[in-house]
Amino acid sequence: MAPLLSPQQLDFYEANGYLILRASEHKLVQRTSDLKKWAEQVRSWPLEKGKWMPYFEVTASGEKQPMRTEKFVDYHEDWRSLICGDGLASILKQIAGEDTLLFKDKINYKLPNGNGFHAHVDYHAYSHIGQIHHITANIAIDEANIANGCLEVVPGSHVSDIEFSQGGRISSAWEDSHNWVAVPLAPGDILLFGSRLAHRSKRNQTDKSRTSLYATYYMKQDGADLRQKYYEHRRQIFPPDHEREEGKDYQQGWKTYGFAAPFSSVSSRA
Fold this sequence. Notes:
The protein is of the alpha+beta class.
């Protein structure tokens, strides 16, 4: 059974735009080792068209490696039970004040030497589906720390005027003039944050992965099948590497979806 959040926790989320729930507190995961096993299962899936959506990155040393997999809960019962289960739904309802539905699901692998993510807010990658509010549950699969590129946030930025460049990427001037707070997580910990919170992460400088799950939700009252609409649009204009067609222009997809994450070149193929 999910915990009841305290008034102090709810106030912290409202004021700062994020909240950390430790694994020992939320008790949604019996064995954190299962998270690692499930993530490895997803990463090992073959490249198939029209199903899960794996993306790659090119590291600073020129190696191409898995960067993330999206839209995987349809094909993995254990992940679906956690991400779409009553326990997490109860926590989200306490934060949002209403029922939520899954909008987007991804696992970021951040393998050794994996790239960082530019400072950004998520809203700009979602707003074409609807100008609505979203909440993300970031579940740590591996330990996330400063050395391996844990998330960094600007507390209170969800209600601030943020200067942007290149879509949802935050301008260098705004980024450099604000205080960023690192958010280390142990396996199983959950970081909850909204789609207007400024966040970023640095490169993984260790020899181990920093794998994390990000499940994003929207308010149920905002419509039906928004996840389906999101992924239909994404697959059309910014498909996984192995689904890209030679000679097709994916620049609009890059502008909509690729402004912060280290996706491999739109011209590359897996």
